[in-house]
Amino acid sequence: MVTEEMNPNQQREDSPTASEETQMDMEGGVRIHDDDPRITRVGFAKIDHTVMEGANLPAPAQPTLYIRKYSVNLGRRSKSQDNDVDLGDSMNISRQHASICYNFQKGHWELFVKGKNGLFHNRKPAPYQSPPIRLRSGDMIHIAAHVLTWTEAQRQ
């Protein structure tokens, strides 16, 4: 039996290149890595973050957030809490004020109110521990002086 010795830096003709290998997952689907520059233009949804006029607050550090995971935390800046959407340091906002999660059974996104001061969803009050609220494109979430507009990615 003849065995072929290969230099570790040499690529076999029948094996994928390193870039092809890293772009394919186990089921043959394309994978995009975190360091890929296209990652900022893809996601399940996006949140546009603004501050109400006259609120005397700085503009959000990240005015547009592309959602690339199934759970997003919104809350007050804190050393102990790492939020995806930083709502500043106002004591009117809880460290874990709200979360947005994808409900796989129902096939849609839901908003969970965790802050004691509640929030407004499409100008309607949503008190602390309200039942989950279904989110649709164009929905607006008001937390203190912060306005978040939810937009889902278009399904192909």
UniProtKB/TrEMBL annotation:
Coiled-coil segments on the chain, per record: none
Domain FHA span(s) in chain numbering: 72-126
One of the GO biological process terms: regulation of ribosomal protein gene transcription by RNA polymerase II
Stored Pfam families: FHA (PF00498)
Keyword vocabulary terms for this entry: Nucleus
Biased composition annotated in UniProt, kind: Polar residues: 1-21
Keyword Signal part of the UniProt annotation: no
Region (Disordered): 1-34
Keyword Nucleus: yes
Annotated GO MF terms: sequence-specific DNA binding
A cellular component term, taken from the record's GO annotations: nucleus
InterPro entries: FHA_dom, Fhl1/FHA1, SMAD_FHA_dom_sf
PANTHER family xrefs: PRE-RRNA-PROCESSING PROTEIN FHL1
Name the record gives this protein: Transcription factor
Species, as recorded: Pycnococcus provasolii
